[in-house]
């Protein structure tokens, strides 16, 4: 029987795996938050123009959030603040 050597991950690979995991969490949460406001697109949604405008802006902030999250995540990693997850980021506020 031959032994197989397991190639250990480098620190960079482990950090990238953690970032990928956190980005997946970020996108999952973002998708859920957007879905919670999908009703705004229904023709029978009865909301004021002000509310509609605010919700559409919020939805855009959510769509843009993964890019913001990535920048914040990288900054926190650079500062050696390991253990960061999507829940520790400042998410857009729902109107």
Number of strands: 0
Radius of gyration: 19 Å
Sheet with the most strands, sense and barrel status: none
Q: Give the amount of beta strand, in percent.
A: under 5%
Give the low-confidence spans. Answer: none
Order of helices and strands: HH
How far apart, in Å, are the first and last alpha carbons?
64 Å
Q: How confident is the prediction overall: mean pLDDT? A: 83
Helix content: 55-70%
Note the main attributes of this structure.
single chain; 95 residues; elongated
How would you sum up this structure, described in words?
This protein has 95 residues and is mainly alpha-helical. The chain has a domain at 25-88. The chain is built from 2 helices and no strands. The chain has helices spanning 11-35, 49-78. It is elongated. The model has no long low-confidence stretch (mean pLDDT 83).
Summarize the structure.
This protein has 95 residues and is mainly α. It has helices at residues 11-35, 49-78.
Give the secondary structure arrangement, pairings included.
Blueprint: H1 11-35, H2 49-78
